[in-house]
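Supplementary Methods, section 5.1.

A reviewer requested that the exact input to the structure prediction be made available. We therefore reproduce it here, unchanged from the version used in the analyses.
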Amino acid sequence: MNYLKIIAGSAFLRVAGVGFGFLAHLFMARLLGAEEFGVFNFFFAIASILAMIGSFGFPNALTRFTQEYLAKSDTKPILKRLILFTQGFSVFLSIVIAGLVFAALYQIPKFSHLGLHNFIAAILLTLSWSVLKVNSGALRGLKKINLSVLYETVWRDGLLALCLAVAFFMNPQNGLAETWLYWSALLSFLGVLTSQYTIHKAVKTIDKPEEALIYPYKYWLLTSMPMMLVSGVRLLMMRTDLIILGVVMSTANVGIYAAAVKIAGLVAIAQMAVMPYFSPHAAEHYAKKEISSLRNLFVQMTKLQSLASLILIIGMFALAPFLLGWMGEEFKAGFAALMILAVSQWLGASCGPAANLLIMSGKERIVMWMILAAALINIPLTFAFIQFWGIEGAALATAIVFIGQSIAPLIYAKKTILLND
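The structure derived from this sequence is encoded token-by-token as follows.
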């Protein structure tokens, strides 16, 4: 089937990206040790959340709007302005939000001793990630799915893994987190430049409008904001455990838990591979009111990602102890947390891409409220569970909320979309 070929290509790149990301963190954990690795992941987690806010939901909005504007010849010229506007807005917002948040954190004694360079590097990382996410959304909308994956994950993580491998073999002594935060930012900026060139080539053939157009900036912002809240809060939930551990416990515990999170994240490869294909095609089917085709697509993607995730989790049971041990003896303490997170990833995958289905069908506000409700539960639950069970408590709280936020969109999608022809 054609969709399997496309997903296979996307899956290969996603696997490569996740694999490179895993290798990068593997070498980094071994190179830095639990303490500095914890510092890196603390700033990395905050920067990723701020980058999601800085991109303002434009990655998903661009995927949807691009298909709408390309469908009609008279709206095609609007697409160029849309891309430029979203990029410029993201640059401005990410600089402002990252500057304010990291400046505030630097005033807190618990964090200021970590060093000014960590804060500067994290701001640059936020900016580069924000624009790269926007460009990736534009490429998905243009149905350049593999290039979207290539620039957003493979490029950055592959080069970072290479740099870390060279550093490790040349001098396998403890390094500094700030060095690799700067390298991550630099490689992300290179991804921005190359993805920008690809977008420019794709849209330069669109003719200029014969008459002045009215650009719906307000509509773009109002549509994107709920998507930003959905993506931002969802990512916040994914990073809440790391951030709360950094506040409550030592950075060494953050490092051990971060290693467990990274390995458990390998189970999500199947979902990552499916999503770039599913999103634009779901938007297209819904726009054409092809509900039967949309339902078939959803069922196929759900079966595919559930089965693939199950295979991955079985392999993880066997390999996880070895991988944690290679990072360092102290990282073995994260095995139980790793398995809790991995099982929750598989259960979530078995619910299918329901949240994305709702977003691509214009129901992003429903998803937003679901995610906000989950976040309100997640933060106090994580605090409470950490007090009782440490890093295993953080994993358990994250798993409970993640499964819940996977089931809720599925129930709503079945009642409102999938069962209505």
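The chain has 14 helices and no strands. These observations are discussed further in the main text.
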